[in-house]
Design brief:
Layout: H1 2-35, H2 45-70, H3 74-95, H4 100-135
Helix pairs in contact: 1-2, 1-4, 2-3, 3-4
């Protein structure tokens, strides 16, 4: 019985790690797209991956700290995310040798690119699902 509980818990941990890595790669790709719009140094996959990793850790740590020690309310969650986003912009600006405004621009371009690609994926998957359901 104990082995079954442990293996289920281990499976959940592995699933969370895989999701974290998947979303980190997802964020890295869109950060690379955003960095291609400005004259940024060090915009390769490895440098962008490290920047995305640092930003993710900062925002995650702020959310955990605020929810644990201050308040689990929604307004404090938004404040933690905004502070984390400002710190993330500083990290992007320093790591890629661009200005603070360019770091904000990179983030906006990355979000726009992500939204466009997600909408395209939803449309394609919906179309394919419709075709499959129509055939069968």
């Amino acid at each position: 019985m104990l082995f079954q509980i442990g293996s289920g818990f281990l499976a959940v941990i592995i699933l969370y790690i895989l999701l974290f890595v998947f979303f980190l790669i997802f964020i890295t790709l869109f950060l690379m797209i955003g960095l291609s719009f400005v004259d940024a140094d060090k915009r390769g996959f490895g440098q962008s991956f490290l920047t995305a990793f640092l930003c993710t850790l900062v925002i995650w740590a702020l959310i955990v700290i605020v929810r644990t020690f201050i308040s689990p309310s929604f307004i404090w969650l938004i404040i933690a995310i905004l502070i984390g986003l400002i710190i993330c912009w500083v990290i992007i600006a320093k790591r890629h040798d661009i200005g603070f405004g360019s770091a904000i621009f990179v983030t906006i371009i990355a979000v726009i690119a992500a939204v466009i690609i997600i909408i395209i994926l939803i449309l394609v998957i919906g179309f394919l699902l419709g075709v499959v359901l129509w055939i069968f």
